[in-house]
Write a structure and sequence with these properties.
301 residues, Nucleotidyltransferase, domain 5, 2 domains, 13 helices
Length: 301
């Protein structure tokens, strides 16, 4: 008997547009057929009360078109595609116009997730593999950061912060390289934002999305990205902080030549790691657990 047709999720983020193609088994586990990303920087220059930049919109729509074509090539029928957008679209004054164009490209309406929905879905994507015990799940995006707390597979609290790698970088990156002083300033700002929602301490923090997976790939010294090595990898807090300070001392041109650090992330990775370090401290965590997944895994039909 042939396996059922796969499903797909399109995730329109502030920095990256992702495509997940897979099948959900009877036990809820996701069989990944393809998980790909395109950096489009949709939220470039986006501030409260502003519109999306036309060039960023065109880059994002082009990535969506390519992702849809790839999903079709992998056998995903039209009725088994889910499309969702996050902070970049939530913040934009012209969100409705963008969503209308995106729906034309995708062939169905695009759902806008609230920050709290993002946090809960990200938690669910990790809890599916770690159903027992306490769990803290961090999702660092380009325009927002989500933190979910729970136990035994059930989420108990969620928080969404107006704190993202793209916007933090744009706010603090006055020099190239920003140096340790710039890195510490970003981490201090992130810590102040996170302090608005205290959580009980726990020694391990699970983190997902591009900042976390790129951090893992760099700390592992990978020459090419390997999901099987990144997913579930663990690192001590000081190793993460050390990497952030090291990258902050390098010009963007030098960072962009590092393996597993594409040009579209070579700038904002410094801000992303600053958020990651602040979140480890906020949660009282000494160990970072990196997971290559995200709310797209929970959204897969």
């Amino acid at each position: 008997m042939e396996p059922p047709a796969p499903s797909a999720v399109l995730d329109i983020g502030t920095n990256t547009v992702l495509l997940l193609v897979g099948r959900r088994g009877p036990d809820g586990a996701v069989e990944v057929i393809e998980d790909r990303a395109r950096i489009t920087r949709l939220g470039e220059g986006l501030a409260r009360g502003s519109a999306l930049r036309p060039a960023a919109v065109e880059r994002t729509l082009a990535a969506l078109s390519d992702h849809v074509a790839r999903a079709r090539a992998l056998g995903v029928p039209g009725g088994r595609i889910v499309a969702a957008a996050t902070a970049g679209v939530r913040m934009a004054t012209d969100a409705e116009a963008f969503l209308a164009r995106a729906a034309q490209v995708v062939g169905l309406p695009v759902r806008v997730l609230s920050g709290e929905e993002e946090a809960a879905l990200s938690f669910a994507s990790v809890a599916a593999d770690e159903p027992a015990g306490p769990l803290r799940v961090l999702d660092i995006g380009g325009g927002s950061t989500e933190l979910a707390v729970g136990r035994d597979g059930k989420v108990s609290s969620v928080a969404s912060f107006r704190l993202g790698s793209v916007h933090l970088w744009e706010r603090f990156a006055g020099a190239d390289p920003p140096g340790r002083e710039g890195f510490e300033a970003m981490a201090a700002h992130a810590a102040a934002c996170l302090a608005e929602r205290p959580v009980s301490p726990h020694p391990r923090l699970s983190a997902l999305a591009g900042t976390a997976t790129t951090t893992a790939a760099l700390l592992l010294g990978l020459s090419t990205y390997d999901r099987t090595r990144v997913d579930g990898s663990t690192f001590e807090r000081e190793a993460v902080r050390g990497l952030g300070a090291h990258l902050a001392a390098m010009p963007i041109e030098a960072r962009s030549r590092l393996p597993c650090l594409p040009t579209g992330r070579a700038d904002v990775i410094v801000a992303g790691i600053a958020i990651l370090v602040a979140a480890l401290d906020h949660c009282g965590a000494k160990t970072l657990v990196v997971r290559d997944r995200g709310h797209r895994y929970a959204l897969l039909p």
